Amino acid sequence: MKRLIAAAALALMGLPGMAVADGHASFPDRPIMMMVSYGAGGATDFQARIVTMTAGNEDALGMPIAIINKPGAGGRVGWNWFATQAEADGYTLGAYNIPHFIAQSIEGGVQYSAESFEPIANWGADPAVFVVGADSPFNSMADVVGYATENPGKLTFSGAGLFVGHHIAALQLEKAAGVKLAYIPNNKGGAGAMKAVIAGDVLGGVNNLSDAFRAQEAGNVKILGVFDLERNAFLPDVPTMAEQGFDIDNASVNFRGVMVPKGTPQPIIDKLAATVPDMFANSRVAGKMKAGGSPMHIMTRDEVLDMWAAREETLRELLAGL
Amino acid sequence: MEFLAYFGDVFVPVNFGLLLLGTIGGLILGATPGLSPTMAVALLIPFTFRLEPAQGLILLGAAYTSTVAGGAVSAILLKIPGAPANIATTLDGHTMARKGQGARALHLSFLSSAVGGVFGVLLLIFLTPVLAQWALAFGPSHLFWLAILGVTVIGSLDSSSVVKGLLSGCIGLWLATIGFDDIMGAQRFIFHPSVSGGINVIPALIGLFAIPQVITMFAKGRQRLDAEVLSVERHPVGQAVREMGRRTRALSIGTLTGSVIGLIPGVGGQIAGLVAYDQSKKLSPEREKFGTGHSEGIIAAESANNAMVGPSLVPLLTLSIPGSPTAAVLLGGLLIHGIFPGSDLFDNHPQVAWTFINSMLIGQILMCLFGLYVAGLAARVAQVPNAVMAAVVLGLAVFGSYSVQNSMGDVYVMMTLGTGMYFLERFGFSAAPLVLGLILGPIAEANFIQGSMIATATSSVGLYFFTGALNLLLIGLVLVSVGYSAWMEIMSRRYTTKDDAIEKEEALS
Amino acid sequence: MTDLPRSQHIVASGLVAAVGLAVVTISYTQEPTAAFLFPRIISTVFVVLALWTFGKAALGRTKVGNGLDRRAMISILPGLAVALIYVFWAAKALGFYTASTLAFFVLLSLYDPAPHGVGKTWVRRIVITAGFLAVMYGLFAMLLKVFTPREIFF
């Protein structure tokens, strides 16, 4: 009976590659899954689906990548799963968000740190921006800080959660401007935080550049400043925080990329690290990303390793005061 | 009337083919346990990469429309609600199917879905600017009161005992707090690694409804063949149409409640069906028949959860804010083609916007026709012998709960909750209020915390939660709902004896 | 109606009340306070209602719930055992499709009223099981492309 079922099942499967054990030369010989720790439709999910859409091409991995969403608690649920339960066989990839997971590991209460993961490549960099409603009296960061100086602790502004890029940006702003602000974390991510700004539940908000760009196009918000080292190609008219006199670097920029769990065989990591950046550089991918208003920033594994280490250091310093 | 100008586009052969494909595919996906409309639409996104924007959206819009209705099929025939929206449908729909009237239940459900759905899309077409303001009016304090209003429905959902209904609701509220807290990121009640990510609503839903069902079938043992074969009544569509005509109260309550509540970002879709069910029960002269396979229950629930489809897209299409998870996925489908929802969509891509909306309108009708066509056949599921049915439902429950996020932990949670629920049900607890607690808990908590953070920064908690017309209106509704339930409880005590209650339960199980 | 359901009701509501007390204790002792504010409110209501139910059960005033009867429990036992082994062990260890097929076949053999001594009914069971496997595979593997844990045989 068992053999019958096995035979039937094999026949149905069309006998996919049976040579699994020896070496990793044939990797990948079955479809790959990629875990995204935010919900379907969020910015990370949207971009992950685009950058992996050409994975099945012969010049990329030759096998499709399927996206699996494990949302919850600002990404903690997904990364906890990835660090503790995902199989380290190269068929389970994960999307990372810097500075989110590093900040959360510094804060504690999670089962991962930068040590738990091996980066493969980076695909995007989405800076945080400061937005206010379209009818807001604030027209520059100086107005915002001015209000906060007169009303300490009363300037409410939304962001996607605690210990994510938006929260880091908020902390940097408080520190650089020397004022006390009321950061309201939202449980529905960037979209929820944006709704709070547009509906006037809060006076302002920190949000993703890509989402804010769209909301500005729709005429719903004004973007007052970018939390990055230089102006962004999507928003050439919006000054950076440094230009407006606040000493804020790019520590809150949301870098997104692909990683695997620690313990994945080195040959597989090398193979992925060699192919994936080229896959991201595909012109169809670039076209769709641009259409969706998502800035791309491709980095190789070595560059990402350096970036992780640098972020870890700055974040430890910034969060030490909390 | 701009939408009329683009009606022709829907009937271009390629577009119409996609519409049919989306509708039929959506019904099948919707009827699959574990596949919520959000998942179904997300699965279809890759297919739209190569299509024109309007064509891609036709496929997605049709699929969204019909997965919501398709969820009713598994709710009625298998007692597995495909999504939270279909919970209320199981209450009367499945009971009706168990009496051999599965075809009638399906007919009523598809007809009322179509009526509600068309109304919802028409609202989207004609009242979008007004509705957008209404959707934005709900801040944290209002959403908190809305969630509390949902909780008060609990007491009357479970007809046999208000206290046990509330207690079931509390168990659900507690289960919802397991895992990481959404705002602070603190870990709560994690006593087993399977729940470290919290309890996902869909696997919980499958477990709480399907597993007690499976165990009840086990309890019947090896019955003789002739004892269990159920005669399935044939049910002409005309009769269902006439019945709809007689039940205009339930239909209009369902449609209106669904479209009003469906608008509210983040809350609407999940509770529209239950609130409509509750309202029409409270206003019906035949309220004691609810829960025993009464047609008003199905009509109210299904018209409400399809009426919410159109309005739930208002915040997305006008303000570029996805109001529901499904809308978020649709946003991805638009962005991939470089189209930004908002004024850009209607000004610069009217053929995309209106073709999409029109396709949902036509999709509702196609869905209804197709559903009515297969209802008679699908109802034969009730004739499947107990043993086969139990094994099939168990298998579907396992696969369905796993496929939500490829997690074994979800399967364990599903089975544990389901087995526990069977035993709780034997002692008068029920699944519907428990699930409602599970859904509303996070909404109430997150909005309470956000609201009080905003309140402490600006004014005071009391002022923030207890002033303003909308807050007061919602508080008033909460009080009315509680008062009404209490009054009904006292009234029913007079003539409900222990024996009556047992008799009623025997009839149900 | 003997006293059996009454004592069962006491045990059942006692268990629920015990869970409630545990939840209340945890909620009021864990840190950080801000994250446990909501659980405190819920668990307090939970415990009050659970103790009320327990009190009613102890006084024998429970109106609803038929309790468990012996005959039904005996019928449930083998099926529930198979279901639990299937979900908690076999699905992961043997692979979803293998385990589901086996569980399906065993459950069918246990609860199908057709006689066990006749060869023809076994053929029928195997055919139904194969049909089930084909539908599940078609739906979840081919159509929805769900990644299930590795099968033991392939």
Automatic annotation (TrEMBL), chain A:
Query: Is Signal one of the keywords?
Result: yes
Could you say which protein family the record assigns here? Belongs to the UPF0065 (bug) family.
Task: Enumerate the InterPro entries for this protein.
Answer: BUG, Bug_dom1
Q: Per the UniProt entry, what species is this protein from, by scientific name? A: Roseobacter cerasinus
The name of this protein is C4-dicarboxylate ABC transporter substrate-binding protein
Q: Which UniProt keywords apply?
A: Signal
- One Pfam family per UniProt: TctC
The highest taxon in the source lineage is: Bacteria
TM spans, by residue? none
Keyword Glycosyltransferase (UniProt): no
Q: Where is the signal peptide?
A: 1-21
UniProtKB/TrEMBL annotation, chain B:
Instruction: Write down the InterPro entries for this protein, in alphabetical order.
Output: DUF112_TM (IPR002823)
Q: Which UniProt keywords apply?
A: Membrane, Transmembrane, Transmembrane helix
A Pfam family this protein belongs to?
TctA
Q: Which positions, given as ranges, span the membrane?
A: 12-36, 56-78, 105-128, 134-155, 162-180, 200-219, 251-277, 316-340, 352-375, 381-402, 423-443, 463-487
Q: Which residues form the DUF112 domain?
A: 18-436
From what superkingdom does this record's organism come? Bacteria
What is the protein name given in its UniProt record? Membrane protein
- Source lineage: Bacteria, Pseudomonadati, Pseudomonadota, Alphaproteobacteria, Rhodobacterales
Automatic annotation (TrEMBL), chain C:
Identify the residues that the record assigns to the DUF1468 domain, covering every copy. 15-149
**Membrane spanning residue stretches:** 9-29, 41-59, 71-89, 95-114, 126-147
Q: Which Pfam families match?
A: TctB
Sorted alphabetically, the keyword list is: Membrane, Transmembrane, Transmembrane helix
Q: Which InterPro entries match?
A: DUF1468
> Key word Membrane present in the record?
yes
Q: What is this protein called?
A: DUF1468 domain-containing protein
